[in-house]
Design a protein that fits this description.
alpha/beta, about 40% helix, about 10% strand, EC 3.2.2.27, two-stranded antiparallel ribbon, 4-stranded parallel beta sheet, Uracil-DNA Glycosylase, subunit E
Length: about 220
C-alpha cells in the first residue's frame, strides 16, 4: 500500500508516515487486501483527506469504522456510494438535517459533497475486512488518526469538531478547546437516537453559525 494521500497532508503528517508503527500498519493492510475482501477499495482508503485538503478543512466529523458490507464504504465516515441504501445512522443524520435546516431528505448517501466543502469525514480506523466489523482495529490506524486530530488542533484555528457518541467524545482530549469549537451529542445510531440522544442536537445549523461568525462560508448540508 503506497500512501496516496492529498499532497497538502504530506507535510503536516510526514512524521507519522516515517514511524515504525505506520510501516507495520502498511504491511498489515497490504496483506489483508491480498488475502481477503476488504473495504473501502484501496484507492479510497485516504479519500477523506483527498476530498478535504488540509488547508481547506474547517469541520471534522469522527466515525469509528468503515462499513463492512459490499459496495458501501467509500472512505468517508457515515457515507456510502451513490445508489447504495442508506444505513440507519445515515438515515438519522439526514432526518436531523431535515428538521434542523428544513432541507429535503437527499437521494444519495454519498457525502463527498460535504467533504468537498472542507468537512473531514474521518473514521478512526480506515479499513475493515468484509463482514467483520472492527477487524482492523488496534493495528495502528487509531494511532494515525489520533495524530491527524492532534495535528489539526495544533496547526489550525476555529475548526468545528462534531463528536457523536461515546467513542468520538473520547477524542475531545486531543483537541485544544481554547482554539476550536467542539459540539457533542449522542450517536445517530437507532439505539442512541431512539433514546433521545441524537435528534434535536442542531449540530448542522450550529456549525454554520460558527463558520459564518468567523467569516467562513457555511456548509451546504
Amino acid at each position: 500500500m503506497t500512501v496516496q494521500i492529498h499532497k497538502s497532508w504530506l507535510g503536516p503528517l510526514s512524521e507519522e508516515f516515517e514511524q515504525a508503527y505506520f510501516k507495520e500498519l502498511t504491511a498489515f493492510v497490504k496483506e489483508e487486501y491480498t488475502r481477503h475482501a476488504c473495504y473501502p477499495k484501496g484507492k479510497d482508503i485516504f479519500a477523506a483527506f483527498d476530498h478535504s485538503p488540509f488547508d481547506a478543512t474547517k469541520v471534522v466529523i469522527i466515525g469509528q469504522d468503515p462499513y463492512h458490507g459490499p459496495g458501501q464504504a467509500n472512505g468517508l465516515c457515515f457515507s456510502v456510494k451513490d445508489g447504495v441504501p442508506h444505513p440507519p445512522s445515515l438515515i438519522n443524520i439526514f432526518k436531523e438535517i431535515e428538521t434542523d435546516l428544513g432541507k429535503p431528505y437527499p437521494q444519495s448517501g454519498n457525502l463527498e459533497r460535504w467533504a468537498d466543502q472542507g468537512v473531514l469525514l474521518l473514521n478512526a480506523t480506515l479499513t475493515v475486512r468484509a463482514h467483520e466489523a472492527g477487524s482492523h482495529q488496534k493495528k495502528g490506524w487509531e494511532r494515525f488518526t489520533d495524530a491527524v486530530i492532534r495535528t489539526l488542533s495544533k496547526e489550525k484555528e476555529d475548526l468545528v469538531f462534531l463528536l457523536w457518541g461515546g467513542f468520538a467524545k473520547k477524542k475531545a482530549g486531543l483537541i485544544d478547546k481554547n482554539k476550536h469549537h467542539i459540539l457533542t451529542s449522542g450517536h445517530p445510531s437507532p439505539l442512541s437516537a431512539n433514546r433521545g440522544y441524537w435528534f434535536g442536537n442542531r449540530h448542522f445549523s450550529q456549525t454554520n453559525e460558527i463558520l459564518e461568525k468567523k467569516g467562513l462560508k457555511p456548509i451546504n448540508w
